[in-house]
Amino acid sequence: MSMDYIYYPQPLSDLIIGFSRLPGIGPKTAGRLAFYLLQHAADAQELARAISDALLNIKQCTVCGNYTDSDPCKICTGERRDTSLLCVVEQPRDIIALEKTGEYKGLYHVLHGVLSPMDGIGPDQLNLSSLFSRLENVQEVVLAVNPSVEGEATTLYLSKLLKPFEIKVTRIAQGLPIGGDLEYADEVTIVRALEGRRPL
């Protein structure tokens, strides 16, 4: 803990420390947030209510693992979803990214992480057991896991586990983003772009 905290009253110090535990928030930003909330009590109370409400009412869908306020979630119960298509993602926020495109109409399955032995995350820590119980009417599983080292390992692991089910297993294309420059791209990204090339 920084020595700066000794100058603050304990509740303020605790608030700053709490904010600094959030991802992407350093000590200075944490301090600014804490002081802002002290100066804007109505905003602070609204934020506290929103946090409390989310913790009380948001849960994981027992079917797909997405965050939801109703179980099963609205995607799993959607009448217009293509139940023959199942997209496996790393986190619930990945579903939002795919849904915003308006292109994907199938169902989802959230792993809630990727294999990472260094962090103690193995297959048992991922939402895998319910995945295999959902494959009865599925014709294609799309692996849309982030292209990190851990994501690649997870994708390979899942593709091996899914092979005996004789279901088509695909992965989302990877490569250069729109507006990206070849000279700044890393070798793996360029290889993926070349592998994913298609005729015009």
Biggest sheet overview? 4 strands, parallel
CATH class term of the largest domain: Alpha Beta
H/E element order: HHHEEEHEHEHEH
Seen as an oligomer or otherwise, the chain set is single chain
* pLDDT < 50 runs, ≥5 residues: none
> Total domains, how many?
2
CATH architecture of the largest domain: 3-Layer(aba) Sandwich
**Count of helical segments?**
7
What does this structure look like?
By secondary structure, the protein is an alpha/beta fold. It has two domains: 3-57, Helicase, Ruva Protein, domain 3 (Orthogonal Bundle); 79-174, 3-Layer(aba) Sandwich (Dna Topoisomerase Vi A Subunit, Chain: A, domain 2), CATH 3.40.1360. Helix content is 38%, strand content 13%. It has seven helices and six strands. A four-stranded parallel beta sheet has the order 4-3-5-6. A two-stranded antiparallel sheet has the order 1-2. Helix 6 links the parallel strand 5 (140-144) and strand 6 (168-171). The protein starts with 9 loop residues before the first helix and ends in a 5-residue tail after the last helix. The model has no long low-confidence stretch (mean pLDDT 89).
Produce the secondary structure layout:
Layout: H1 10-20, H2 27-39, H3 41-57, E1 59-60, E2 67-68, E3 82-89, H4 92-99, E4 106-110, H5 129-132, E5 140-144, H6 149-162, E6 168-171, H7 187-195
Parallel strand pairs: 3-4, 3-5, 5-6
Antiparallel strand pairs: 1-2
Q: What attributes characterize this protein structure?
A:
200 residues, alpha/beta, four-stranded parallel β-sheet, two-stranded antiparallel sheet
Briefly, what is this?
With 200 residues, this protein is α/β, with parallel strands linked by helices. The protein has seven helices and six strands; from the N terminus they run H-H-H-E-E-E-H-E-H-E-H-E-H.
